[in-house]
Structures are given as C-alpha cells and as structure tokens.
Amino acid sequence: MPAHVTLPVVMTEPIWTDIRVPSRGDPNSLMAKPVCVIIGSGEGLGRALAARFASQGFDLGLVSRSKENCSPAIEAVMHASGTARFFQADVTQPQSVESAIANISRDMGEVTLLIYNVRGSFDSCEPLDMTYEALERIYREEVVGAFAAAKSVLPAMIERGAGSIFFSSATAAFRGSAGFPLYAIGKFGLRALAQSLSKAYARHGIHIAHFRLDCDLDVPVMKELYGSDYDPEKLADPDDVAESYWLTFQQPKTAWSNEVEIRPYTETWTY
Q1: 255 found inside a domain
Q2: What is the CATH number of the domain that holds 241?
Q3: Per-residue pLDDT of the chain in tens (271 residues, 90 and over written 9)
Q4: Is residue 21 part of a domain?
Q5: For the chain, which terminus, N or C, has the lower number of CB atoms within 10 Å?
Q6: Orientation of helix 181-201 relative to helix 145-160, angle to 10°
Q7: pTM of this structure
Q8: C-alpha pair distances (Å), 160 with each of 60, 112, 140, 192
C-alpha cells in the first residue's frame, strides 16, 4: 500500500471502515486508526492539538457546543490529511458529554487519547462578590465536564490496559487569587481530579496528565489585547505547546509525567 493515505474531513454521518496502516508488528496488518477526542477544540490550542495528532495518524473526534467553534481545528486536520468529525456537547451538561463520547466510540472506534481542553470563565471579581451561580458554573465547566469525559472513556481503557487522558490547565491550579477566584477554584478542582484519577488508574496502564500552562498563548485575541506591546517571544506558540502534549503522549510507562508545566523561556514565573 502507499506510505501515506489522504482522507477527507467529514462533517456528516460517515460510513466507518477500517484503514490499512502499518503496525509495529506487521506492516501488512489491517487496523483502524487511533482516535483522539478533543473537548474544547477552538482556534488556539485546540486547533494546534488537532493538527499535531492528525499528523501522527490519529482520527479526531472534536467536541464543542457548535460546529463554528471547531472550524479552525477541522481545517487544520484537513491540511494534515486527517479525518475529523464534529460532535455537539455542552460541558456544563455531563449527560451531553457522555452522549458525544459514546457516539464517537460507536462511529469512529475506541478512544486512544482524550484531551479535555476547556477553559472556564476568566471573570474578575473579589471572592465575596462571587455568585453561587457563577461558582456552580465554573465547577461544572472545569470539574464536572472533565469527570464526565474521563468517566466515559476510562472503563474501556482499563479493560484494554492502555489509554491516555490529558487535562489542559493553568498555574491557577496551584495558587488562589484575590482578583480571579472563580478561575482558580475551577483549576484547583481540575488538578485534584487529574491527580486522583492518576493515583487510582495509572496502575491499569492509563496515563493521566495535568498540563499547567503558565503563559499566554500567541493567538489572534491575545495579539489584539497586547496591542503595541505584542511580542511573540513573550507568548507560547500553540503549535509548540501541542508538541509538548505529543511528547508526553509518547512517554514510556516507566517514566510517566502527571504534572506537566509549560511556559516560554521569557516568562516571569508566577509562583
């Protein structure tokens, strides 16, 4: 067979077929491509992650509230000659997350890698000004949605004895904030979830990692916010960050990372 197979990006219900790709043991073996699910696949890191894993032979199940949110990631997968499909879900509604992942498993195959790449609201307020509604919402976005996603893939991963779950986070997971308490509370919860899952299920062959991004990403909205102070050397390139996710995915079992910290060389550490 040819060394490289070009597949279309699919936005409608596909006919699922096995793809002949080389395996480590038998270059002529017939097997489905591995599936990477990204929840929160927008124009920044989500796009970069989709492109990086597509370039490594993964099919992408992209989960978001709307197709429009996934458009940059879908286009990036297309340029990487991969296959991507959109699945609708709202992370504040855990049943919708479970349903989306069940549909991915049914239509695309077993999930090899789950990336929960959701960022809750970054609203500024003092702690006493937090509303109960805002507190509940951030908990649903950062923790409940993440748990629903992990719970949807873990049983099958444990049965296979293999799989990876990555959570995108921030240094806010390590420190409280007088000005952004909601964001810190959400990320604290996400880190606790990631660590708890890792302690419980790493022994079953499941690699669970919490990625702390201590930086701003070099994306159009940040370029606009920085204005004349914009300097790409002071921001993290989303494609380089995605490369760190890929390198973590390749770690051998005897040397797994649970906490992965990422920042550009120019960053002033914030803790």
Answers
A1: yes
A2: 3.40.50.720
A3: 444 444 444 433 332 323 223 333 333 334 689 999 999 988 899 999 999 999 999 999 999 999 998 999 999 999 888 899 999 999 999 999 999 999 999 999 999 999 999 987 788 999 999 999 999 999 999 999 999 999 999 999 999 999 999 999 988 888 889 999 999 999 999 999 999 999 999 999 999 999 999 878 878 778 787 888 888 888 889 999 999 999 999 999 999 999 999 999 988 876 6
A4: no
A5: C
A6: 10
A7: 0.85
A8: 20, 10, 29, 25
